[in-house]
Design brief:
Family: Belongs to the iron/ascorbate-dependent oxidoreductase family.
Radius of gyration: 19 Å
Pathway: Alkene biosynthesis; ethylene biosynthesis via 2-oxoglutarate
Number of helices: 7
CATH architecture: Sandwich
Catalytic activity: L-arginine + 2-oxoglutarate + O2 = guanidine + L-glutamate 5-semialdehyde + succinate + CO2; 2-oxoglutarate + O2 + 2 H(+) = ethene + 3 CO2 + H2O
Number of strands: 14
CATH class: Mainly Beta
Structural class: alpha+beta
Strand content: 15-25%
Bound molecules: 2-oxoglutaric acid, fe (ii) ion
CATH superfamily: B-lactam Antibiotic, Isopenicillin N Synthase, Chain
Strand order of the largest sheet: 1-2-10-7-12-5-4-3
Cofactor: Fe(2+)
Shape: globular
Order of helices and strands: EHEHHEEHHEEEEEEHEEEEH
Number of domains: 1
Protein name: 2-oxoglutarate-dependent ethylene/succinate-forming enzyme
Helix content: 25-40%
Length: 319
């Protein structure tokens, strides 16, 4: 089994000539692993390239400058996180990666910020790189629009009206994360990873990766297949909210990273995690629960789902 490539030509808006065909391809990918590439996704190549410049510029800052914007100073899980901070796979060693988180800037008076909902609030921008904010917010906006379009295509793929999920699009809890993986350590063992095996928790992740490779996806038979970089593509993977929404029909498979192919160079990747409105309900969509059977998951809100994931992975951080 491989990771399919889905061409979004003529499927980027309602009424598109290839919407039905793309929906079928998303259905097949969702039922298999929850992973697929998209090409011709409509995102400006310059905007994508420039976000890698952000990643390099921020992560190349002197340690003191990165420390000044450390995640621990943020109420909204935004900022810099050093190597070893996160252990995505509890059975593995701490992840060999550093990263910078940012997202939509919800103002202090926004009710979700007032209520202290996870990840809603202000960013921490590095001093001395004034262009980073505008670029990152423009990138976030473009990715958010694409993620919401993918949710529409996902609705079609489930034989639902294209706008089925649209009511969940307000106040999304999005996270843009720029990651740098140093070369895989010389003393690495089988428990050493750039990112340990994990599933993503949200609805859909849109990943831009550089040309080195290193991301591996678990197939239904348990084997690992590399998500080989394809220039201009994004790797899309479904998060744990989607099995919940589809009563287990679509999958959110584990994936992991090892930077072993770069010849010593760092690997950069930029996942964009799209999570709908914190207050939106997540429950089995019409037609997904077979007659006479109980739904596999209890209905909940997006926020409750996230809290459940934190509880399950106590001591770990959001992926
Ligand atoms: O770096 C990658 O290719 C994947 C990163 C990832 O899976 C994550 O941050 O959740
Ligand atoms: Fe992930």
């Amino acid at each position: 089994m491989t990771i399919p490539v889905i061409d979004l030509t003529d499927a980027l808006r309602p009424g598109g000539a290839r919407n039905a065909e793309v929906a079928r391809q998303i259905r097949a990918a969702g039922e298999a692993t929850g992973f697929f590439y998209v090409i011709h996704h409509g995102l400006d190549a310059e905007l994508l390239a420039r976000q890698f410049e952000v990643a390099e510029a921020v992560l190349n800052l002197p340690e003191a400058d990165k420390e000044a914007i450390a995640l621990k100073h943020s109420k909204a899980a935004r900022g810099y996180e050093c190597i070893g901070s996160q252990t995505l796979d509890a059975n593995a060693r701490p992840d060999v990666k550093e990263s910078f988180y940012c997202g939509i800037e919800y103002p202090p008076e926004h009710p979700y910020v007032q209520r202290g909902y996870y990840s809603y609030g202000a960013n921490q921008w590095p001093a001395g790189l004034p262009w980073v904010r505008g670029q990152s917010l423009a990138y976030t906006e473009a990715m958010c629009a694409l993620a919401q379009r993918l949710m529409q295509l996902m609705a079609l793929s489930l034989d639902l009206p294209e706008d089925y999920f649209d009511h969940t699009h307000g106040n999304p809890m999005v996270t843009l994360r720029m990651i740098r993986y140093p070369a895989h350590p010389a003393d690495a063992d089988e428990r050493t990873f750039g990112a340990g095996a994990h599933t993503d928790w949200g609805a859909v992740t849109l990943l831009a990766q550089d040309a080195w490779g290193g991301l591996e996806v678990q197939m239904p038979d348990g084997s690992w297949v590399e998500a080989t970089p394809i220039e201009g593509s994004l790797v899309i993977n479904l998060g744990d909210m989607i099995p919940r929404w589809t009563n287990g029909r679509y999958h959110s498979n584990p994936h992991r990273v090892r930077n072993t192919r770069s010849g010593g160079a760092p690997r950069y990747s930029i996942p964009f995690f799209y999570t709908p409105d914190y207050m939106a309900r997540v429950e089995a969509v019409p037609g997904s629960v077979p007659e006479g059977t109980a739904p596999r998951y209890a209905p909940c809100t997006v926020g409750e789902h996230l809290q459940e994931m934190y509880r399950k992975t106590y001591g770990l951080q959001a992926a």
